[in-house]
Amino acid sequence: MNFSKVIQLSQSAKGYQQIKLTNAQIEEIEKSGRRAIPEKIIGDFFHISMIRSEEVLMEKDSEELTDISEDTSRELRAGGPVFFVISVKDGELSTELISFYTGMIMATMQLQITDLLLGYSFSAPQEKLRLLNMPEWKNRLDVPRDYSVVQILKVGYPDEPVNKRVPYLGSLLSRILD
Fold first, then answer.
1. pLDDT string in tens for the chain (178-residue length)
2. Please, what's the b/e burial string for 18-30 (b: 16 or more CB within 10 A of its CB; e: otherwise)?
3. Are 138 and 74 in contact (CB under 8 A)?
4. Is the pTM of this model over 0.85?
5. CATH homologous superfamily for 3-177?
6. Could you identify which of 8, 87, 98, 153 might form a hypothetical disulfide with 47, taking C-beta atoms 3.0 to 4.6 angstroms apart as the criterion?
């Protein structure tokens, strides 16, 4: 798909089908995020992890997880979509640079996701960030101890096919700023 078409069709998914992504799709999305910012910065300060829903079966009896809502528990257990988790090294970058670089990573991944005819949605309420910043979850995600999870991107086959969406026909700049 050409860049202009990807921009026009890129929008958050409302719901997802219970179809699993292939390893090739996942690798392509992750690679796009790693290419979004200079290699030195991503290598020294950022970590990208991925959760497959079947890997996230929550142990509700775990002391750390007893106060997680049923909605979050259900979403993390659902089949189909995966969650890309962006983490940043603690105390190394300013809040502004974290926001800037995280935004670049996420935007590049979103465009790749749309090009693959998949859907995405941001999934970073405080409850999920708090959950994934717990030592047990950082360990499961291979997030280094001195990193904090800052953003989550849910990716899967959308209920509404991407190529059937009504394209956004505004300017590229207004699309990015919306």
1. 566 666 666 777 778 888 888 889 999 999 999 999 999 999 999 999 888 764 554 443 445 545 556 665 555 555 568 889 999 999 999 999 999 999 999 989 988 988 888 888 876 666 778 888 888 888 888 899 999 999 988 888 888 877 766 666 655 445 455 5
2. eebbeeebbebbb
3. no
4. no
5. NADH Oxidase (3.40.109.10)
6. 87
